[in-house]
Design goal:
2 copies of one chain form a homodimer. Chain A is an alpha/beta fold. Chain A has 2 domains: about 170 residues, HUPs (Rossmann fold, 3-Layer(aba) Sandwich); about 90 residues, Pantoate-beta-alanine ligase, C-terminal domain (Pantoate--beta-alanine Ligase, Chain: A,domain 2). The first copy, chain A, has a 6-stranded parallel beta sheet, with helices on both faces. A 3-stranded antiparallel beta sheet of chain A has the order 8-9-10, with helices on one face. Chain A is globular, with a radius of gyration of 19 Å.
Amino acid sequence: MKVIAHPDKLNKALKGLKHRGANIGFVPTMGALHLGHLSLIKQAVRDNKIVVVSIFVNPAQFGPKEDLHKYPRPLKRDLALCKAAGVDLVFCPQQKSMYLPGFATYVEVNGMSNLLCGAARPGHFRAVATVVAKLLNIVRPDLLYLGQKDAQQAMIIKKMVRDLNFPVKVKVVPTVRQIDGLALSSRNAYLTSAEKIKALVLVKALLLAKSLIVHGQRDAGRIIRRMKELINKKQQVKIDYVAIVDLAELKPVKKINQPCLIALAVYIGKTRLIDNGIVNYV
Amino acid sequence: MKVIAHPDKLNKALKGLKHRGANIGFVPTMGALHLGHLSLIKQAVRDNKIVVVSIFVNPAQFGPKEDLHKYPRPLKRDLALCKAAGVDLVFCPQQKSMYLPGFATYVEVNGMSNLLCGAARPGHFRAVATVVAKLLNIVRPDLLYLGQKDAQQAMIIKKMVRDLNFPVKVKVVPTVRQIDGLALSSRNAYLTSAEKIKALVLVKALLLAKSLIVHGQRDAGRIIRRMKELINKKQQVKIDYVAIVDLAELKPVKKINQPCLIALAVYIGKTRLIDNGIVNYV
């Protein structure tokens, strides 16, 4: 496994492989790899001859009051995990080689970027779209792997790929959960053991919603209200949003008469966690 | 020479060539080809094994009151010129296959895009950057050819390529002029013969500026004033802007003590024409 820090070097390392026609799978990450990332990586290893993983904590996608500085960066462990999983190339660039002096170009996916998580995190999805566009141009993969856990991010990137004709196919891989249902996230590391139990309220709220729908409830407003009631019973848990939206534009739906995404973000103490589920059994 | 209308088909046609390692040169145009375009195409033919020319009058880069509908579209003639010049593939997509329903993604090069021509044409350079990003992803060339005539456009695209790591080298090809000095432009077709004579004021103003500098004038404000005086002597000629700017960010310079761009836009009757010259003999 090669570890490469500079975009130009990665480009060169990949150019030879490209000419030999090898399929390249790409998994962009911010490191602090967990079984969710590894599920993406394993899928990429199954599908492609060459697998590239990027590890880059992209400062641009963190708000001024967010957790950029404390975000976990266990690089050695991450590299060992990549190697064990069969990754061929790890790209871990420095900030200064990703954002040259005078950097001024941004990719914006209008509409979806200011909803849900985008409402609480202005500029976040612009920064995500921009860095993924850069990474796609550096790596030039045939397949791009994204996690369903970050549903809005996956939808925005898919839209960007379509709208800007990036020559890559996007695969969205299911969320990996602990046995108790908590969705894996690098930010779970911030939680105390008491908070980890409280955090189960996310998956519980999703299950409540699905159960209501299975039992015939179709009124999105009522379902959201029931989810919020459930969450508000927990102390030190604060709702950012609970939403039921369509899968094309992430716009709120009133009646559940089409496949939709149930998504929520809550603060468990100081840690912001998200989760979501797709409902398509209507 | 192949003529291809759909992005997917072009992508497929090029994929085979790519694997065989052929260098691809790309000249994006809006058609109505003149000797300026042909100079780009000839340079591309000299440099590359495969040359792709796109012909697409991109509606998004025209303002609501601009000349989208009357913009010349002599497709047959353009194709004959491409064939004679040795072009391998002409890509002439329809609007609906370039902008799918729900299109919402834009590439914005901040800073430079709202100056000079961008001030009079809001959104123009965002649309240019976006369509060029799309074309680069569809064609995936090794070399991209742009004309110095559209100096601001060339600089914005170069910045975008750098900032977003597009794996392409940009070559800017000198402006081609008539024997009398008028820079070639598809929009010259709008001019009456009387206006064509009036239009020489652009190159005359540039020559005046260069002559002042050669004779020791370093005060950009004075040079601009002299250029404006010259232009204002002509009837039915209206100045949009006359500017002397740096080559990195297109910011106005006060003293000419670095290489800089002298750029101007004027209306000759109803036709907006631009021209520019680089001064590097300081």
